[in-house]
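How a chain folds remains the central question behind the approach discussed here. For one protein, we set the task of working out the structure tokens from the amino acid sequence alone. The sequence in question and its structure tokens are set out directly beneath this paragraph.

_____
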Amino acid sequence: MSNWTQGTDPSPYEPELGSLPNGSQTGDEDTVNKTGTTTIGIATDEGVVIATDMRASLGGRFVSNKNVQKVEQIHPTAALTLVGSVGGAQSFIRTLRSEVDLYEARRGEGMNIEALATLAGNFARGGPFRAINPILGGVDDEGSHVYSIDPAGGVMEDDYTVTGSGMQLAYGLLEQEYTEDLSLEDAKSIAARAIKSAVERDTGSGNGVFLAEITDEGVEIQGHNAFDALL
């Protein structure tokens, strides 16, 4: 059931929410595919870049997949990363994408990125998705936005952010290289280098990079098994 009430004018920062299943978490962590991962979001005046590695592991000890797309489009001009349990993250993205479609169908207009981030935080806090810590990046009439969303539902906007097991390694490079006047192409190169830096030392990250380029024209996502062409 939706919490939308006919005849009211709800705040754009409190979009209609559908019901969520009552899920239960199990202790079988060793049999759950996890992304481990390093994910990066960078906002520029030209748009947003999101970069992720491509590895999934089983119980944190075995590489179960080397070609995982950890960033998905969820909105005409926004994308979200997968961090944590693969199943939980995929369910989170499907649910969020459905609610975005429902919002736009009911109101006849697109959801802005701040409202989308609030919705994602609400779901992270109240949903049965296991621990996830995604990055949301998007572009709207207000400009370019990057948000990190913690497992408790906290939503924080920044010029750039990193989540995942390789975050400390990636942050070191980003702190040195980020400037406010970055072009979108420069941001893509820096993001790929930061992923490569994490891959060198973090066992939960590896096997290449997916890059999402987000502008007011849409979302383009490409996977690269080698870093050389991006650096």
The chain is about 30% helix and 30% strand. Residues 33-230 form a domain with the Glutamine Phosphoribosylpyrophosphate, subunit 1, domain 1 fold (CATH 3.60.20.10). The CA atoms of residues 112 and 141 lie 8 Å apart.
